[in-house]
Amino acid sequence: MKNPSLHRYATRPGLYFTDDGGADAIVRSETADQVWFCVLEPLDQPSAFYADAVRLFNEPGLTFIDQAMKQRICTRRIPSLNLRETLFRMDGPNYGLWYVHVPQAWDGMQYGYRVNGPWDPDHGVSFNPYKLLLDPYAKGIEGSMELDPGAFSYECEIVNGKVKGSPFGPMSTIDSVGHVPVSVAIDDRATNKHDGEPSHPHVAWSKTVIYELHVKGFTANAPWLPKELRGTYAGLAHPATLSYLQDLGVTSIELLPIQAKQSELFLQERGRVNYWGYSTLGYFAPEASYATKRSQEAGAAAVRQEVIDMVRALHEAGFEVIMDVVYNHTCESGPEGPTVCWRGLDNLAYYRRTKDKISRLYDTTGCGNTLDFTNTHVTTFAVDSLRYWAKRIGIDGFRFDLAATLARLDGEFTRYHPFLYALRSDMLLGNLKMIMEPWDCGPNGWRTGEFGIPFAEWNDRFRDCTRKFWLTDVDRMRGGEYGEMTMQEMATRLCGSSDLFATDPGRGSTASVNYVACHDGFTTADLTMYKTKHNEANGENNRDGTNDNHSVNFGHEGPSGDQIIVQQRQRATMNLLGTLLLSLGTPMLLAGDEFGNSQNGNNNAYTQDNDTTWLDWDWLYSTEQTPELKQFNLTSRLITLRKSRDLYNHEDFFTRLSEIGLLKKSDRVHWYLPNGQMPNDADWTNPSVRSFAMQLLSPDEPSLLILINGSDEVTRFHLPKDIEWEMVWSSSEIVGEYPGLGTSIERVSEFDEESESKPAGRLRNHLHRINMMYWQMKDDADNLQSADDGLSEDDPTLWTLPALSISAMKQMPTV
Question: Which domain of life is it from (predicted)?
Fold first, then answer.
């Protein structure tokens, strides 16, 4: 379809190629006095605008901006950068928009904007025409910001790597070209651009298992990839990478931000980078550093094509692609930050201000600035960006960082925010997976469960409850104290957190995105190895990152060679993952947790672009049955079990009847104590009750029974009668134990007589003997206890569960 001709009522900014070989450029700046569209060309090649542009010379007492004010089209030479800049004066503002038609435009053309207007930072206005600005709608970005005075709107200097100057002082007249990134035009008019595109998987929420990963960190150390593909979009799309993800069994790949990024000023001053990418430079352009060197050298269009090819490869392999997006703030930081785009275009319109002093930014993100989603045009900008990634790149869903900020009106959160309505009502976006991080750093910032249909949300209550039950409560229990978590609390989380997500009729448990670990915090393995954070490598004296981790170390901080400690950690890890993947809700697994990846106790590794955050794959090609492989297989089996059942589409915990107070007993879940009785009211709130069973029922398929033994003793469960049960998964398998029918626990012997002649084999067998002696003593103690538990030894529905374990039993079909 041809683009409509430009007219003064056009409402969408951007660069649009036209059939005459040129392009229409539109940009928003509601309070500027003048805007120029600027094209950069190599100085050693002929200019495309020679016939139209007036050349500017160095005139005494006149800057190039003074001269450009008098010309319609002008050009200047920048020999030090081998560049020529042609400035097109734009018309406007019409309804806040500025327009110009460029007679020639080409794929790969580098361009930007210059904006003139008042310099009055005390009133929030800081226009500076000497700064080349990115197009907010640019589909490609090349180059990066240098820590140089030219990148800042105010007069400053760099002293010992630090910026010295006041953003409320005089305006800088240093040209920023060469010190800041530039926009790159990509001709997107081809009618066949979607040819050969595979169909999107459209995984049902009830079958969704999310896998959060970093594009670079996932394959940076991947031994199956050639070096040129490691840490790239192409590396993630490699057949061997896709095969690994299929073996694991996850359905939806959630990518940490892949929109173009720029490290915060304070990181640049310390010579560090924002590895995670939560510092957005461009909302339409992909991050070029994750592309292969070949694509980077070929230009922005090749980088974008590599991203498109990655998404297509994931789709062909059956995976959805969910993208983490950061619309709450930009990379420009506070007033002291650089000027690369929005600050220079319209500082008042883009950023939220304090009510008492307009020069100050209202910050609910902790990142120096907050985009103003009370401005209709900011909402439109975000929606346009999301639609572009969904329609052109093929993204299947989005996870919104610090989403509470996006839904604040007059400083207060509301689920009825126009931005949320814009997402719900959009015909494209409203049918995608949309996941909210339901908090921010502002007042009353915790809003888990309050976004409503159709949004899913990260459930931090599930995270904390699960960690406490299996880690810190166990630690307290061994010290003779009661834990915090009760059966009521655990049951609520296992059932999808109806206390949080029963906000709309029909809003089911799938709205709860359950997780134990994510990119922000300890990995699951580190939760069992470190009692406190170890972020010294971040260079902030270990002050960064949360102190509220609910982690334990089992008596030793960090890795341990003590096999008893190792087994305790392995069991705890599988208990955490088992609870995650057996609970109602939508599970999210952090990449590497399936094999025990560690970040050496760093719970805020956002600056660690190194082996700390790059996954270690050495175990994958080991000739032995490594602990990592055992954990991978157990996790994969559990994901398969979950996906094979239709019991996880639980949307009936809140209906119109329950809304008006007509409650009924659930026919989807039943609860039992180990003696086979249903819990009474006192049991639900008694923190000493740590062993119970959860039965998931369905009229269409056999039920699933989840046995939880949160005690430090072997416990026997009397299962629901008249049903034959089969054990299909147990967390204790990681240490070679299996729940047994009756009073036994099956243990796998690993004693190898042939290896007794080898030192390594003798050590392994010695550790095995110690382990078997320990369990023989445990058996003796259990046998003493068994006479008093009131359970018959001959009951065929009696199963013995190892201490501190979670197991899944499936109902055998009736013959």
Answer: Bacteria
683, amino acid identity? D
Q: Which tokens hold the place of 54?
A: 């007036």
Q: How far apart are CA 125 and CA 346, in angstroms?
A: 8
Residue 608 neighbours by CB under 8 Å, 6+ apart: 275, 537, 538, 599, 602
DSSP code at position 758: S
Instruction: Express each pLDDT in 69-94 by its tens digit.
Output: 999 999 999 999 999 999 999 998 99
Phi then psi for residue 42, to 5 deg, are: -65, 140
- The half-sphere exposure of 607 on its side-chain side, counting CA atoms within 13 A, is 17
Decide: pTM greater than 0.90: yes
Tokens 């720029």 map to which residue? 262
What are 457's two structure tokens?
A: 């949300």
Q: Tens digit of pLDDT for each residue in 602-625? A: 999 999 999 999 999 999 988 888
Q: Where are the alpha helices (DSSP H) in 495-626?
A: 498-501, 524-527, 563-582
Task: Give CA–CA dist 39/101, Å, rounded.
Answer: 13
Give the integer Cα–Cα distance in Å for 466 and 462. 6
Which among 458, 455, 417, 419 has a CA at the least distance from the CA of 440? 458
pLDDT > 50? residue 686: yes
**DSSP one-letter string for 687-737:** TT--EEEEEE--SSS--EEEEEE-SSS-EEEEPPTT--EEEEEEGGGGGTE
Which pairing describes strands 125-126 and 119-120: parallel, antiparallel, or unpaired? antiparallel
Supply the residues annotated as catalytic: 401, 437
